[in-house]
Amino acid sequence: MGINCHRSSSDKGLLEQILEVLQNSTIAKEKTKDTRSKFWAAYKNVSGEYDDDMLERCNENMQIVLIFAGLFATVNTAFIIAMQSNPIETTNLLLVQLIQNTSDSRSATQQMTLPSSTGLDSSKFWMQALAYASLGFNLLAAYGAVMGKQW
């Protein structure tokens, strides 16, 4: 009995695939003799490491901006809510008038005096305008940070 030296076509195809994978592999870097090629290969490695480090730092900075923007928006919104006028007195007087009008038709002609609105003084107006502008810019910064992280 002799050894069969003929390979089947499936074995030959498998060996060709292995050879192709090894030729296209980047595991072992090809040694070049040209000094320019060595320079550009070294430049590619160094710039790749620098770019990866820079992207990692920028990603961390964007994360910090997002956390700060979220906390600042929460605090700013709380201040904006606290600055709003309280319409409870006007609402209560209007509800009392509605109840009186529905229970007794004769009292519909009576007019209740509602508290006059004093309006906003200029300092309160500017404080609210700055608070809303601050919230708007904060949301814009958060949007920019999200776009930067997704890029």
- pLDDT under 50 segments (min length 5)? none
Helix content: over 70%
Please describe the biggest sheet, giving its number of strands, its sense, and whether it closes into a barrel. Answer: none
Category from helices, strands and their pairing = mainly alpha
Summed over residues and divided by their number, the pLDDT gives a mean of 81
- Per the principal axes of the C-alpha atoms, what is the gross shape? elongated
What does this structure look like?
With 151 residues, the chain is mainly alpha-helical. The mean pLDDT is 81. α2 (35-83) packs antiparallel against α4 (122-150). It contains 4 helices and no strands. The chain has helices at 9-24, 35-83, 88-103, 122-150. The longest helix is centred in the middle third of the chain and has 49 residues, at 35-83.
Q: Which labels suit this protein?
A:
151 residues, mainly alpha, 73% helix, 0% strand
Task: Give a brief rundown of this model.
The protein is mainly α and 151 residues long. Helices cover 73% and strands 0% of the residues. The protein has four helices and no strands.
Helices and strands, with pairings:
Blueprint: H1 9-24, H2 35-83, H3 88-103, H4 122-150
